[in-house]
Design a protein that fits this description.
Distance between the termini of chain A: 26 Å
Number of domains of chain A: 1
Number of helices of chain A: 4
Largest interface: A-C, 81 and 77 residues
Low-confidence stretches of chain A: 1-55, 128-136, 257-272
Radius of gyration of chain B: 20 Å
CATH superfamily of chain A: NADH:ubiquinone oxidoreductase Nqo5 subunit
Structural class of chain A: alpha/beta
Largest sheet of chain B: none
Mean pLDDT of chain B: 84
CATH class of chain A: Alpha Beta
Mean pLDDT of chain A: 70
Chains: A alpha/beta (272), B mainly alpha (341), C alpha+beta (392)
Order of helices and strands of chain B: HHHHHHHHHHHH
Helix content of chain B: 55-70%
Oligomer: heterotrimer
Chain lengths: 272, 341, 392
């Protein structure tokens, strides 16, 4: 069914369905407010028992400091920003991608590169479950975006940190689906070399200025970009996801437990 | 003693056969006692316990037999004749060393006047075998190992020699029987009970000999040529089955021979203090020599399992910058003492 | 003893691309040799292939080829539910498998707004530190092995057995416990586990003293590792080298103390060890001290262990609300992190797994220029990567 309602069974009154994504964070961190996420067609979500109206998660002081510095250096290249559980996410224009890295490295003293990766926001194709209560891990069929939004299907995101100042920032940028080319970070962070190779291999996003963009995990003759959502996972083609089932019946039972009975220990439903 | 009148040819053949049988036996005994058992105990494990019942003593025979029944694999691009000859060269050089080691007053294949010189000279023939193996294997790791081995084995010949020169100076002879005799009949400041084992005066030489022998046998800390974690057996990497057994016997047989040499040169060889009867010495001599050489081998293998390995350039530095000057100084001091006293 | 002098040469970036026909700048063209270390090789722990171009015994250029163990975890996580993913991610860094689950579970709990009870947090921390001890004991042993000393490897394994027995007693699995659940843990600790752990920590500390005497103070070991493979702090950070490797270069940064608070670390009192040199010996030394520190931390935690439930109230079928989060932890191998993007289903939409060894190994082309072949082995051993962590 198209409408998966992620509900907390402890709160039966989730009848109010907003067309916005709301995120609740009663987390171990200091922030106790809801985060705001950009959206187009939003998924249906449950409201917290308190039924709070969605409010943008306020940036902490360090996050605000970082954001101010970035905006000061990059100007309009900063499109949007958000805070996810204490981490600042900033989306920048594609042509300012390398400049953003330089600003992070020099002005923000973020000397440590954690990773550079890609994300494909296109909804995954329908998985095996043919309706019913199979609770297959299907994702919503509308394309929605995450923190700090996105301009299209592909994005490249990276996380850099400072070893001396104990802060970090997630930078995101959009990738044009027709001509996926992003500036390479290798002149700024030499470690980006391998990360960008992996990103190209998995998503097909090319990096301009990279010394040698070649396969890193897969053989040289491999065709396709595996982490794209339209690249089929062979295991699931061969056999659809069986759902949350215990393949082996419990001792004393004749039939294997289905769906709800398996609960959270669904190792039995694991398939190769 | 029963006097059997046989020609010298028969005696020579008999002695050769005994030596030929002794080499693999000695190698396997060393391999079992030290490599399997002592190493295991030092590493907090037991080693083979099942074959043979008592601490797995049959393993040493089993290991030897196991190699004989393996398939003979030769790399496609290997130089066939050189590949096949290399292990033979190594074993032959070991065999030649055994010819001059005295195990009793009469139990020696041939007591050469230049025994010591001959022993060291033929032991260095194995370098040729190693180089042949490394080159003929058509394998870059083997080649690297062989090149390292060539440099190392040649470099450590000198400290070996210099260590022995001190003994020769003190004994006045190069013949190994003569050296044993000098130790047996010598006296420590007039006290004749245990003779004069040269280790007491030539302790520097003994240490030098052990270190150089360790390097000659390519054992840790000098096992760059066969660095297991880098070259995976170095020059021996392409050898399997019977050919590898030859290398194994060559390596441990040479260890046996060097330990015997060290025991002969420094510890008195077959000489037993207080036993002058030749007949008795002929019977007990081999056992005494065996005991002494096992003690020396114990030291060698103990060091082998304890230390990491030196890098090639550090290895060469140790030989050229430290061991050779010490050896020369040792000879100098020995000479001075010899003349003075 | 001599130390490795890096010859002053500019490495042309084209060397990365075509190792076979790179322009090598030597006056005497003795013909370089290309040597393949791996994928089967005792020194590259696992299936790492290191293609080096040698000039005699000196490395001119090196190119690691990875991916022999690539299992496609990031794709696999997209078709599994959260508890099923815990089984998967155990196997990323298989030596400290408990520590791999922690950041992911933490991320899922953040998104759900669930917090594990204090006892569960403490037990998780204890098990993480135990897996850190287990991993490091193996390292202390095998680094000696790579350098040539055969014996410390066995001591490392022997002491590790004690710790693995503890983990097995608590979780049921020596290597892949799969013990974390969203909201807490699967089970509480068995009877007598606390006392047994105290005894084992004493054994571990004695073992560390053994390593200190046998290996760290061995002259030959020092000659083989001092001055070899020096990673300057800023270069390391630029490459993403993390964990003990970076702390051995003098960078005082430990996510248990400096990152966002997670598990029970904010309540613990521990020291972060650094070493100024940045060479292989420093990496060994730092890990030795961290093993001791971890043993002390475990004892501290056992003293402070709170009582209470070990599982928070979570629904039977976990549906994690939409959102994204980034969680990073100080794993034994370095900084491990998960960027979890959820769209409200019972499985995540995208999980980016940031594994430590991937970045640690990416510095090899820079680090291996101009070193000798034996030093390559020493450097590989001292960086301490796990193939599952590199290849995911």
């Amino acid at each position: 069914m198209p409408d998966e309602t992620p509900s907390e069974e402890t709160t039966p009154e989730e009848t109010t369905e907003e067309q916005v994504e709301a995120e609740q964070a009663v987390a171990e961190t200091d922030e106790a407010a809801a985060a705001d996420l950009a959206r187009e067609d939003a998924d249906t979500t449950a409201a917290e028992p308190t039924e709070e109206q969605v409010a943008p998660e306020p940036l902490s002081e360090t996050e605000q400091q970082i954001l101010d510095r970035l905006e000061q250096e990059l100007g309009d290249a900063v499109i949007e920003s958000a805070s996810i559980f204490g981490t600042l996410v900033v989306r920048v224009q594609p042509d300012a991608w390398r400049r953003a890295a330089e600003v992070s490295r020099n002005a923000l003293e973020c000397d440590y590169l954690s990773f550079v990766a890609g994300i494909d926001w296109q909804p995954a194709p329908r998985e095996g479950g043919e309706g019913g209560e199979s609770s297959a891990p299907v994702q919503p069929t509308e394309m929605t975006f995450g923190a700090a939004g996105s301009a299209g299907r592909f994005q490249v995101f990276a996380y850099v940190q400072s070893t001396s100042r104990n802060w970090g920032v997630t930078l995101k940028t959009d990738v044009d689906e027709a001509a996926p080319l992003v500036q390479s970070w290798v002149p700024v962070y030499p470690g980006a070399d391998w990360h960008e190779r992996e990103c190209w291999e998995m998503f097909g996003v090319a990096f301009g200025g990279h010394p040698s963009l070649r396969h890193i995990y897969l053989p040289s003759e491999f065709e396709g970009h595996p982490l794209r959502k339209d690249f089929p996972l062979l295991a699931r083609e061969v056999k659809p996801w069986p759902g949350l089932v215990d393949v082996e019946p419990m001792p004393g039972d004749d039939t294997p437990a289905e769906g709800e009975g398996a609960g959270t220990e669904a190792e039995g439903g694991e398939e190769a | 003693m029963i006097a059997i009148d046989v020609g010298w040819g028969t005696i020579l053949a008999l002695k050769t056969l005994v030596v030929l049988g002794l080499i693999p036996l000695g190698a396997l005994i060393l391999g079992y006692v030290f490599l399997l058992k002592m190493m295991s105990h030092m590493q907090s494990r037991l080693g083979p316990m099942d074959p043979g019942g008592f601490h797995g003593w049959y393993q040493l025979i089993g290991d030897g037999l196991k190699f004989l029944q393996k398939e003979d694999i030769m790399p496609a691009q290997a130089d066939r004749r050189v590949f096949a000859l290399a292990p033979a060269v190594v074993v032959v050089s070991t065999f030649l060393v055994f010819l001059v080691i005295p195990t009793g007053p009469d139990l020696i294949v041939k007591d050469l006047e230049v025994g010591v010189f001959y022993a060291l000279a033929v032991s260095s023939l194995s370098v040729i075998g190693v180089l042949m193996a490394g080159w003929a294997s058509a394998n870059k790791f083997a080649l690297l190992g062989a090149l390292r081995a060539a440099a190392q084995l040649i470099a450590y010949e000198l400290p070996l020699l210099l260590a022995v020169v001190g003994v020769v100076v003190q004994a006045n002879t190069m013949s190994l029987q003569g050296i044993v005799g000098a130790q047996q009949n010598g006296a420590i400041f007039g006290w004749e009970l245990i003779g004069n084992p040269f280790i007491l005066t030539q302790f520097v030489g003994f240490a030098l000999f052990l270190v150089a022998a360790q390097a000659e046998l390519t054992q840790t800390p000098f096992d760059m040529p066969v660095a297991e974690s880098e070259l995976v057996s170095g020059y021996m990497v392409e050898y399997t089955g019977f050919r590898f057994l030859f290398f194994f016997i060559g390596e441990f047989g040479t260890a046996f021979a060097f330990a015997a040499l060290a025991a002969t040169l420094f510890l008195g060889g077959w000489a037993i203090p207080g036993v002058d009867d030749v007949g008795l010495a002929n019977v007990l001599g081999p056992l005494v020599l065996f005991a002494k050489l096992m003690a020396v081998a114990f030291l060698m293998f103990w060091v082998r399992f304890t230390y990491p390995r030196l890098r090639e350039d550090q290895l060469q530095a140790v030989a050229w910058k430290y061991l050779i000057p010490i050896g020369l100084a040792n000879i100098l001091v020995t000479g001075i003492f010899k003349v003075a006293f | 003893m001599t130390t490795t002098n890096r010859p002053p040469m500019e490495v042309d970036p084209r060397i990365y691309r075509h190792l076979a026909d790179a322009q090598v700048n030597v006056e005497l063209d003795t013909g370089d040799m290309i040597l393949n270390l791996g994928p089967q090789h005792p020194a590259t722990h696992g299936t790492l292939r290191l293609v080096v171009r040698l000039d005699g015994e000196r490395v001119v250029a090196a190119d690691p080829v990875i991916g022999y163990m690539h299992r496609g975890y990031e794709k696999l996580t997209e078709v599994r539910s959260y508890p099923q993913i815990t089984t998967l991610i155990n196997r990323i860094d298989w030596l400290s498998s408990f520590a791999n689950e922690v950041p992911f579970i933490h991320g899922a709990e953040q998104l759900m707004g669930v917090e594990a009870p204090p006892r569960a947090q403490y037990i998780r921390t204890i098990l993480t530190e135990l897996s850190r001890i287990a991993t490091f004991l193996l390292f202390l042993g095998e680094m000696g092995l790579q350098v040539g000393a055969l014996t410390p490897a066995f001591y490392g394994f022997r002491d590790r057995e004690h710790v693995l027995n503890l983990i097995e007693a608590a979780t049921g699995g020596r290597f892949h416990p799969n013990f974390n659940r969203i909201g807490g843990l699967k089970d509480d600790l068995p009877w007598g586990w606390v006392a047994e752990t105290r005894n084992t920590m004493k054994v571990v500390l004695d073992g560390c003293n053994d390593f200190d005497d046998l290996v760290a103070r061995n002259e030959i070991f020092e000659a083989r590792t001092k001055g070899i493979g020096i990673i300057p702090g800023d270069v390391g950070a630029g490459y993403g080298v993390s964990g003990s490797n970076l702390r051995a270069s003098g960078v005082d940064w430990d996510l248990r103390r400096d990152g966002k608070p997670y598990l029970a670390y904010p309540e613990l009192d521990f020291k972060v060890w650094t070493h100024p040199d940045g060479d292989s010996f420093a990496r060994y030394w730092v890990r030795l001290q961290e093993t001791r520190e971890a043993a002390r931390m475990v004892v501290q935690m056992l003293d402070q262990l709170p009582s209470g439930p070990i599982m928070a109230k979570v629904p039977r079928i976990i549906k994690v609300p939409a959102g994204e989060t980034w969680v990073e932890t100080e794993n034994p191998l370095g900084q491990m992190g998960y960027y979890v993007v959820s769209k409200g289903a019972i499985g995540p939409f995208r999980v980016k797994i940031r594994s430590a060894s991937f970045s640690n190994v990416s510095i090899l082309p820079w680090l291996l220029r101009g070193v000798y072949v034996p030093d390559v082995i020493t450097i590989l051993a001292s960086l301490y990567f796990i193939l599952g962590d590199i290849d995911r």
